[in-house]
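Example S7 (structure tokens).
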């Protein structure tokens, strides 16, 4: 049985390049959406018996807002949690 790091390495080797197909007209840059990434990852996660869940921090509203002159800065705090389905104690957490 592979551990979570070995499984993650196998998935990274299988994904290849993700093309940035969406365009932000305001900032004039290309990006890919979370849904595009999930469409690629879901079959690979199932193949390697990993689950990916998303959550917010506990005991917070997850919305920090700060006013700077006339503009507001808003920051959302999220987590992605990768769990080895064969050994649920093995988890990796990514904050973004």
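Recovered sequence:
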């Amino acid at each position: 049985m592979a551990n979570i790091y070995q499984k993650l390495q196998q998935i990274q080797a299988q994904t290849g390049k993700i093309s940035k197909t969406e365009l932000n007209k305001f900032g004039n840059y290309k990006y890919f959406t979370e849904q595009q990434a999930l469409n690629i990852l879901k079959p690979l996660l199932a193949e390697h018996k990993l689950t990916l869940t998303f959550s917010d921090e506990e005991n917070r509203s997850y919305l920090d807002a700060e006013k700077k002159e006339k503009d507001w800065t808003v920051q959302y705090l999220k987590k992605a949690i990768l769990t080895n389905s064969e050994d649920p104690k093995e988890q990796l957490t990514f904050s973004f």
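Notes on this example. The CA atoms of residues 13 and 74 lie 35 Å apart.
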